[in-house]
Amino acid sequence: MVRGRISRLSVRDVRFPTSLGGHGADAMVSADAMVSADAMVSADAMVSADAMVSADAMVSADAMVSADAMVSADAMHTDPDYSAAYVVIETDAEDGIKGCGITFTLGKGTEVVVCAVNALAHHVLNKDLKDIVGDFRGFYRQLTSDGQLRWIGPEKGVVHLATAAVLNAVWDLWAKQEGKPVWKLLVDMDPRMLVSCIDFRYITDVLTEEDALEILQKGQIGKKEREKQMLAQGYPAYTTSCAWLGYSDDTLKQLCAQALKDGWTRFKVKVGADLQDDMRRCQIIRDMIGPEKTLMMDANQRWDVPEAVEWMSKLAKFKPLWIEEPTSPDDILGHATISKCHNRVIFKQLLQAKALQFLQIDSCRLGSVNENLSVLLMAKKFEIPVCPHAGGVGLCELVQHLIIFDYISVSASLENRVCEYVDHLHEHFKYPVMIQRASYMPPKDPGYSTEMKEESVKKHQYPDGEVWKKLLPAQEN
Amino acid sequence: MVRGRISRLSVRDVRFPTSLGGHGADAMVSADAMVSADAMVSADAMVSADAMVSADAMVSADAMVSADAMVSADAMHTDPDYSAAYVVIETDAEDGIKGCGITFTLGKGTEVVVCAVNALAHHVLNKDLKDIVGDFRGFYRQLTSDGQLRWIGPEKGVVHLATAAVLNAVWDLWAKQEGKPVWKLLVDMDPRMLVSCIDFRYITDVLTEEDALEILQKGQIGKKEREKQMLAQGYPAYTTSCAWLGYSDDTLKQLCAQALKDGWTRFKVKVGADLQDDMRRCQIIRDMIGPEKTLMMDANQRWDVPEAVEWMSKLAKFKPLWIEEPTSPDDILGHATISKCHNRVIFKQLLQAKALQFLQIDSCRLGSVNENLSVLLMAKKFEIPVCPHAGGVGLCELVQHLIIFDYISVSASLENRVCEYVDHLHEHFKYPVMIQRASYMPPKDPGYSTEMKEESVKKHQYPDGEVWKKLLPAQEN
């Protein structure tokens, strides 16, 4: 049963120095830089080493450094420190249950999101959880339509990321109190209650409350069987772990070989920085995986529209299933094949304009479960398969709940559906994702799966955690 | 000549308690609240009184309170404290010249924008101004495409507002060093140099560098005459000062009568909260201004698409020239007649989709002069008249430069063109706008006109300025 009044909200800036491998690799050439290489080894090498071992135990020590250096680089984000604004809310219920929520960021700017979470805090504090979830639409709108704060959004950028972190924590708290993982909370929820969580503002020309209810009621048929199926087989995933930009060809081959051995059948490759380089890397992967397995491409917003057309005509021979974010995420008429967008209004138009063939939800860019529900329902109405964005910090942990719910209660189909997976930083979470036979196995622990290990948070808090205390002086030199 | 290295960047959170009139008005019923009414009188009454006097010297004291109470309320932003993140940059040139830039906000959340400005500061500090303006496109892209920071945008929301504030300060500094107002700096600038300020990323499918150059070169013809004309007659304005939501009918009539007396011929009315109320207020205004004068309407994103259609079919009989922001600013396919958007990519699509008949630039939501240039040029290509958004804090001061430049060097037409004007808070600026015969007279002081009076900044800094030190304890009670 839902209980307690929100008595505390804290938010921390947690950063993992994923860009530093690069500095470390460069470091070998100068004495000065050796300091930062050392710092990396003592602070974070275990983390990266662990992460790498599960992906590719066979890679040589040298390859590990260069792979780690580029672990997350793409054509637009060349030096990310995977980070999170980490929100914890507590109640006065004295049951020891905390709601933990994150939004994912790339390092710099996390402090801006933290600042925005604090600006939203007064909407959460001293509220009864019962009142929040009893009128979740109203609460959602309060957060997103604050008469002063909405000016610096609305429902986009920093403020919307902060909204997601706060709401993710509320959903985690709610699910934990109910003793269920979020996906199961959603699956068991009455369709009317589900609909009451959604803000239909700006989307009623495409999806009304009645439409949503009808879809959810139809989704009740066969639900039990699909739940059983999910628990037995999991939700199909694809891997982005082996083809970031900047991997050497040898590393790419080794990682790809290992992934094939681990049972992966779908692979995503980052493209967009250099056409010749893309052609060579795509050729290597296609040769290794053979003509039957699936290859996706992601340009991370690198191109203008004419450039995208030209570039993709060259890459078409490698038979990609999709090209992801070829251009600006704001460019609806630029016809992305798959796109992660910042709110339901953008998704609505992409569907209206028939501008995408796959739809990519994001657990932190959209306003948590609430806004994702509206997008899942619109996708169902247009019969567009949803293939979530994941990776980063905790995105896999969060989005598995949404996509498993989608299959059981909304789409009832696995055709052309697949959820991204990146084997990275899961070791910092108390309830990390479980992948079996290239599928997400439904989590069983109550909550939304992004409670972090307190030790990890403390170590990686920016700028005062142990990791950064060592790294920052070295970086400044 | 351009000179100096940026040696200092400071940013302050400046808020004007424009929402407090409302509290003051309510205050009369309780002893507690009298404190806040008193506080308002001592802190800000002079400001609001001054502002009101110029608009309507005839209004009674009571009417002044209620008018002030609602001075800036619309259907979505019901209690704004007009505010600014105020950036000042200094150089080591020892000439005493500072660049001042703002972005406009509504109170809460200004601290988030301030935080984002600080996150951008390292891109500006220690740069030679010569190098910045020598490769302004590169500098613009550095600010907007920072590999880590762009994740929390890109080019939208908090980060883009912060970018605007920083770049507005750079333009102010540049123009002051050249001894020219920004509009004149632009008018005198070689077309190639102008084009080098623009980032064409994501818009080349509609506007290439060559297109831009061609438009600007054509704009050279007749430039001298148009400049003379502007200096003599100014740029046509319309007033939003008299028809905010919540004015009593008496106040509305008095303000409207005074505006007619002052020579205004174009009037904007806020709509969207209550249809019956809108009908009555539109009737009053149309009756007063007669059938020939121009009436515009602004719904401030209040409606869903079907609602907008229904509502406007009822308001059509008052013959509005346009309906502004009927729905979400992200809804390109929702067919706004006029829209203020967050970046050039959204404007590009609105033009491509023929979704607007007027285009509304904003000096603080877009990335300063640089991004506004690209939008002015695209509007010219599609032959859509530009009618800027203004009001707020300093928006009139800024945008006059852009629109005067547009007339002289780009559009060469005044047909269907008119720039918003709101008579509010100008007294805090060192170089306030000058309105004559309902037109913006071109500013003559060097710079971008948003240097604030230091005394105003100090008094209104949040939360430590004199005004807030008095108000905040009263609000907490």
Automatic annotation (TrEMBL), chains A, B:
Q: Which Pfam families match?
A: MR_MLE_C, MR_MLE_N
Q: Where is the Mandelate racemase/muconate lactonizing enzyme C-terminal domain?
A: 249-345
Q: Cytoplasm as a keyword?
A: no
Taking the record's annotation, the residue ranges forming a coiled coil are: none
Biological process terms in GO annotation:
amino acid catabolic process; carbohydrate catabolic process
Cofactor(s) annotated in UniProt:
Mg(2+)
The protein's matches in InterPro entries, at most eight in alphabetical order, are given as: Enolase-like_C_sf (IPR036849), Enolase-like_N (IPR029017), Enolase_C-like (IPR029065), L-fuconate_dehydratase (IPR034610), Mandel_Rmase/mucon_lact_enz_CS (IPR018110), Mandelate_racemase_C (IPR013342), Mandelate_racemase_N_dom (IPR013341), RHMD-like (IPR046945)
Q: Which GO terms describe its molecular function?
A: L-fuconate dehydratase activity; metal ion binding
UniProt keywords, alphabetically? Lyase, Magnesium, Metal-binding
What Enzyme Commission number(s) does the record list for this chain?
4.2.1.68
PROSITE patterns in UniProt: MR_MLE_2
**First-tier enzyme category under EC:** lyase
What reaction does this catalyse?
L-fuconate = 2-dehydro-3-deoxy-L-fuconate + H2O
Concerning PANTHER family, the annotation shows: ENOLASE SUPERFAMILY, MANDELATE RACEMASE, MITOCHONDRIAL ENOLASE SUPERFAMILY MEMBER 1
| Protein family per UniProt | Belongs to the mandelate racemase/muconate lactonizing enzyme family. ENOSF1 subfamily.
Record-given protein name? Mitochondrial enolase superfamily member 1
